[in-house]
Amino acid sequence: MRFRQAAKSYGPVQAVAGIDLDVRRGETVALLGRNGAGKSTTISLLLGLEEPDAGSVRLFGREPGQAVRAGRVGAMLQEGRAVPRITVRELVAFVARTYPAPLPVAEALELAGLTALAGRRIDRLSGGQAQRVRFAVALAGNPELIVLDEPTAALDVEARRAFWESVRGHAGRGNAVLFSTHYLEEADAHADRIVVVDRGRIVADGTGEQLRRAAGGSLVSIDLAGRSTAGLGDLPGVVAVEVRGDRARLRTQDPDATVVALARCGAVRGIEVTAPSLDEAFLTLTRTDPDTVASVERAR
Q1: Is the CB of residue 6 less than 8 Å from the CB of residue 19?
Q2: Residues 252-269: pLDDT tens digits?
Q3: Rounded Cα gap, residues 267 and 248, in angstroms
Q4: H-type helices in 201-242, by residue range?
Q5: Are 99 and 142 in contact (CB under 8 A)?
C-alpha cells in the first residue's frame, strides 16, 4: 500500500493534505487522530471510495478499486446493518462467491471465531458477534490487506478481546492490517506501527515507544515536602515543570542527568522516573508542527 503526496479537499476544507504512507506485507498499522483529523478520508482514498485531488494511492501496484475487486483488499467499515432471515454461513458464502479466489467459507468463519455460530441468523446476534460477522465478510475475498475503521467501537471488553484475537490470526498469516481507532491502548497493544494524523497530515509514524520519546522524553516526579519549585526548570534536560499538590513533575529529555542534579540538591524524596503515557504523547504530537515526524524517524 502506498500513498504519495495524496490530497483531498471538500470545498474549502482540506481533509487530506499531501500524505506519504507505506504499509508493508505482514505489518499491522494503527491510524490515530482526533475527530476531523482526516482518518476517514484517508481510508476512503485507500479503498477507492474517493479519488485524490492530487498525488496517488496504489495498492499492490493497482488503482484501489481494482485491488478491492480482485479480493486483495478487504474492509470493515463503521456503517452496517444486520441482514434479516439469513445465517452467518449463508452471508459469508454469498460474499465469497463475488471474488475470483475467495477464502474457503469454513476458514473465514474459523478466523473470525464464528464456527459455532455459522447456522445462527445474523439478526439474532449480539453486538460483538455481529462485529465478528463483518470481519468474516471482510476476509471472504482472501485479502492480503484488511482495513478496519473503528472496529471495536461500542464493544465490551470481552468482545474486544475476542475480536483482536481474530485479527491477530489473520495478521499471523503474513497479511497486512490497517485499523483506525479511538482506543490508544488498542493501538499500543496491537499495532507494529502507529501513524498519527492531524489536520490532514501525518505528524508522527513509529512504535508506541518511539512516539512517547518524540513527545518529550521522560517524567521525573518528586515530593516537594515544602521545598520551593524555584530552579527546577533550570536542571539539565528539563523542558517543563508541573506541580500537582505536593508533587512536582519534570518533563525531561535526559532523565539520568535530571536525577543526578536532583540528588545533588537533596531533592530525591519520593523520586519516580516514568515514560509519558501514549495518551500524553498523542496530545503533545497533535499540538506540534508536522515536522515532528522527523524526530520520530530519527528515533527508529
Answers
A1: yes
A2: 888 999 999 999 988 888
A3: 11
A4: 208-214
A5: yes
